[in-house]
């Protein structure tokens, strides 16, 4: 069966590397050392661009890629004629001329005519995709739906004429790879043929390895002969010395965190640039982050860095490299290709302070303390955010939309009224007021951490109202019977435009029994005053006195796979049809902690291409403890293997595409999901916030 695709619109590998989209104007020079203007001309041995005898203006010839007469300029050398395509790349200058850079990768593309065995490397600054090049240069006609349908047979396992490939230089690790579009139904014979022709025509061919970009291609790679070296995106990612999760610039005091310090013992200051020996499950506001252990762009720390607009990178041996700068005020700049870390100048310090002083404040909705019913998701809508928090309100909108292809686990909301009453009945509301007015609490991070710990402990120990306990117990028993439930935060200060609050507050999973239920509710209420939550709200100038803890109680799903999907390409937002998926086996709580590499996929729904960036490397996974409640850790049988099949990834993306239609279109969504076997459940949807 032939599938209609927007053929070969895919990018190079983008192996988790941040994309800094570079606008390349191909008529603006072939190199700074020559000062020559680059004018595209066609290889005279190939079909002409215009009909015989047709006159063409200079503009027409530039658009068509033919040589255009350029008047001589006094004191300037005449421009050098380049080619739109060539049959071989013989040196660095030629590779630079026919390639372009996206983030940490420089790439060109080539096609092989299976009828003549001719190979054509083409300039990707002129033709961004294989299809455009072939239709313009060989078919001499515009792309139509009928023409594209016929052309797309070249992506099947029996190709009528064309092989279409990428040739990529991964700049950071200095690796060279050859690949096909991830949806191409290649065979081992096609790979061998393309590799052979590339070897005959590319000057660095001995360095080039075949890179399988999808699960299908990984199976093909396993069948290749040993003389064709193979490297996966997963291996490139995990062996890289440097990885940019969020690009940017910062000035701050460099702090090197020693190895072995428990995350809960750490406190940070907003003016610090920190070097971490390993990824943290979360972090309070800082000015910049360098971690010696690589994480994922969708981990909570990475989401924080994007929301704060700070540079965040993975850099191996960072502590050793920069130990001499510890305690000094430094300038830190992260790009897709690399970074700069050095002592800051006085002018840089001044400019940085001025920029941070204009941080935008987030205004949260006015709280509704009147609602008292434990409202089911089926009766909850967006307007209920003021009483039931954004998590419950957003899921209520999804339930109301009646979408197909997935389920939302049954649940109900505990409104903020009961949190407010719990605080007042125990006198802890006055304690909060006193703390917020205490100058030492505001100025001393260590003291603040200790006082917040005391406050949380007091909230967790204060007795619940007996009438509330009866109402809560009945609601849980009616909904879940003897099943475990998740007791989840749904405050009025999370999942909001400009402030998603991912990971600030707590969730208690697989709660069983009345006593455990009451403890879980108080624990989630107490998490309103987590250190990371307070510091994040302070960073965004949120009024703490307006923050209340609502709760969402849902039937638990003992997931076989779980994770996060964002409805955008995290490194190249111009790729409007590409979604990013992070997945792990079992329950997905560790996906967002970011301490281990998850399976990471890029799914382009315009052509159904699935690019594999990394495979999950966890030895264990989390599952329900059916006897006593909570979770337990068991061996992961899928370590290094696909977590999501292509079919399940497709189901997930189609569900996300329908959910997008429920919410405003001005921002992408961050969606949490779980699979239990082949059944998909959506458990959260919120704005994906970047600074």
Describe the structure.
Strands 3, 4, 5, 6, 7, 8 and 9 form a 7-stranded mixed β-sheet that branches. The protein is built from 20 helices and 29 strands. Strand 7 (162-170) and strand 8 form a beta hairpin. Helix 13 (428-437) packs antiparallel against helix 15 (445-461) and helix 15 packs antiparallel against helix 17 (514-526). The protein starts with 37 loop residues before the first strand and ends with a strand. With 691 residues, it is of the alpha+beta class.
Question: What's the topology here?
Answer:
Layout: E1 38-41, H1 58-64, E2 80-83, E3 85-86, H2 92-98, E4 100-102, E5 105-113, E6 118-122, H3 130-139, H4 145-151, E7 162-170, E8 175-180, H5 188-201, E9 208-210, H6 215-222, H7 233-239, E10 242-246, E11 248-256, E12 272-276, E13 288-291, H8 300-308, E14 312-315, H9 318-322, E15 329-334, E16 339-343, H10 346-356, E17 375-376, H11 385-401, E18 411-414, H12 416-425, H13 428-437, H14 439-443, H15 445-461, H16 466-480, E19 485-489, E20 507-511, H17 514-526, H18 531-539, E21 551-555, E22 561-566, E23 578-585, H19 589-593, E24 599-604, E25 609-614, E26 620-624, E27 631-635, H20 646-660, E28 669-676, E29 679-687
Helix pairs in contact: 13-15, 15-17
In a few lines, what is going on in this structure?
It is built from 20 helices and 29 strands. The chain has 691 residues and is α+β, with helices and mostly antiparallel strands.
Helicity level: 25-40%
- Biggest beta sheet summary: 7 strands, mixed
Question: Which band does the percent of strand residues land in?
Answer: 15-25%
- Total number of helical segments? 20
Report the radius of gyration as a whole number of Å.
28 Å
Contiguous uncertain segments of 5+ residues: 1-79
Distance between the termini: 44 Å
